UniProtKB/TrEMBL annotation:
Residues of the Transcription factor TFIIIC triple barrel domain: 14-121
Domain of life: Eukaryota
Biased composition (Polar residues): 87-104
Family annotation (Pfam families): TFIIIC_sub6
Region (Disordered): 76-104
InterPro entries listed in its UniProt record: GTF3C6-like, TFIIIC_triple_barrel
Protein name: Transcription factor TFIIIC triple barrel domain-containing protein
């Protein structure tokens, strides 16, 4: 019994990150930022995403080409680059050569490497009879 417990500790859990792509969803659907959603069938070829119990989407996987990395911001403080030494312009004027109109930089750090993109489109149920069809 103790051997089984030791064996369970050696099992590595492999995580796989997937990017959910909703770009093909028409802009007429306003999705609130905190809308509840249900994502099912991730282990199937066509997962289903239901947003706010109103919008039903069907997805398909696409492999990424090259390296796709998800990043997160570390904060919003501005970063001032260190000068390696005084330049001739800085020695004579005593001023920095930084552009005052330049936006502050943000620190980012990698979160995950993404291997698949899950692209969604509107789900059209072909099993529902068309109301406009003549009998």
């Amino acid at each position: 019994m103790e051997a089984n417990a030791a064996h369970d500790d050696d099992v590595e859990i492999e995580e796989e990150y997937v990017l959910l792509d909703l770009d093909s969803v028409p802009e007429q659907f306003d999705i609130p930022p905190n809308a509840p959603y249900v994502l099912s069938g991730l282990d199937t070829l066509n997962p289903i995403l239901v947003i706010d119990n109103k919008l039903k989407l069907i997805g398909h996987y696409e492999e990424t080409i090259g390296t796709c990395i998800a990043l997160t911001e570390e904060g919003t403080s501005s970063i001032v680059p260190e000068e390696t030494g005084p330049s001739e312009a800085n020695k004579s004027s005593g001023k920095s050569n930084m552009d005052p109109n330049q936006c502050p930089s943000k620190q980012v750090k990698p979160v995950a490497c993404i291997h698949k993109i899950l692209k969604f489109k509107l789900f059209v149920d072909t099993n529902v009879p068309d109301a406009s069809a003549q009998p």
